[in-house]
Design brief:
It is built from 13 helices and 8 strands. By secondary structure, the chain is an alpha/beta fold. It has 2 domains: 5-114 and 178-301, P-loop containing nucleotide triphosphate hydrolases (Rossmann fold, 3-Layer(aba) Sandwich); 125-175. The strands form 2 sheets. A 6-stranded parallel sheet has the order 5-2-6-1-7-8, with helices on both faces. A hairpin with a 2-residue loop joins strand 3 (55-56) and strand 4 (59-60). The N and C termini lie close together (11 Å).
Length: 302
């Protein structure tokens, strides 16, 4: 199967996004973000949403799955997979090459290792619509979806039939998930360099107004409890704003937490390798080496 996706992964602060944008510019691509926090509107500095990274030679690289949901709302793996599939098909229909880019290992794994998620929403408006149907109508609908259904057990209670219909429809939706064959590039630097970059970047983001960003989220109605759930920057700055930590404590604890996070990211990527994912590691965001690997792969496609 031809390579139909290029994935660029790596720990935080290694320059993945900028590299991905340069590559998308060269190979007529668009970017799908695999970052569990950049989906949220208004969480910009703390999530490292450096939108200037998407500008290459005055061309704006199109990106997907950034700024799509309010921070008061939940976002999860199932939603990510669903939106990835939509973005992937839109990009492919334009004859462009999709680039999946980010550091959220779970999201990346779910695509390139093809996690099979089945989710039925038992609280959806559809439930109320189905409840209006007669038992016979529900039975017919279910048999259309799955002719092999266990008639005696599943077709006697309306409630059970409705649940089974929702599960069958969720399965049906996943049949249409695109077949993915991804080339995977990993961006890494030696540990000391990553540490240095993390600390420098944290100082810079605080100067750019990261504390004010968190204050703004609180003014807009987000609770401290919700901020804690986002972890890292939002957690420790929230604690600072509540006077649970002074500025120096906040900086030290947050800096340490980001270093630990980068380590956990690498642990996840090594686990993917053990599970059979081939990652072509680059020493830093090395554009020329990345092009060589991509050219070799794409020429093997043709």
């Amino acid at each position: 199967m031809h390579t139909n996706l290029i994935t660029i992964l790596g720990p935080t602060a290694t320059g993945k996004t900028r590299l991905a944008s340069q590559l998308a510019h060269k190979y007529n691509g668009e970017i799908i973000s695999a970052d569990s926090r950049q989906v949220y509107i208004g969480m910009d500095i703390g999530t490292g949403k450096d939108l200037s990274d998407y500008l290459v030679n005055n061309d704006k690289i199109t990106y997907h799955l950034i700024d799509i949901i309010n921070p008061t709302e939940e976002f999860n793996l199932f939603m990510f997979k669903e939106l990835f599939a939509k973005s992937f098909s839109v990009i492919s229909s334009r004859n462009k090459l999709p680039f999946l880019v980010g550091g959220t290992g779970l999201y990346i794994s779910s695509i390139i290792q093809n996690y099979n998620l089945k989710k039925a929403d038992f609280n959806s408006a559809q439930v109320q619509e189905l409840e209006l149907l007669t038992l016979a109508e529900l039975q017919n609908q279910l048999i259309k979806l799955n002719p092999n259904v266990h008639v005696k057990r599943d077709l006697l209670s309306k409630n059970r039939i409705i649940k089974t219909i929702l599960v069958e429809e969720a399965k049906e939706g996943l049949k249409y998930f695109p077949k993915i064959n991804s080339l995977v590039l990993g961006v890494n630097l030696d540990r000391d360099e990553v540490r240095k970059r993390i600390t420098e970047r944290l100082k810079k983001r605080l100067e750019q107004g990261m504390i004010e960003e968190v204050q703004q989220l609180l003014y807009s109605g987000l609770t401290h409890e919700r901020l804690l759930s986002f972890g890292l920057e939002y957690k420790f700055i929230s604690m600072y704003l509540k006077d649970d930590l002074n500025y120096d404590e906040m900086f030290q604890k947050l800096n340490t937490a980001i270093h630990q996070f980068a380590k956990r990211q690498m642990t996840w990527f090594r686990k993917m390798e053990r599970e059979g994912v081939k990652i072509e590691w680059l020493n830093g965001p090395d554009f020329h080496s990345a092009c060589k690997i991509i050219d070799d792969k794409l020429s093997a496609n043709s």
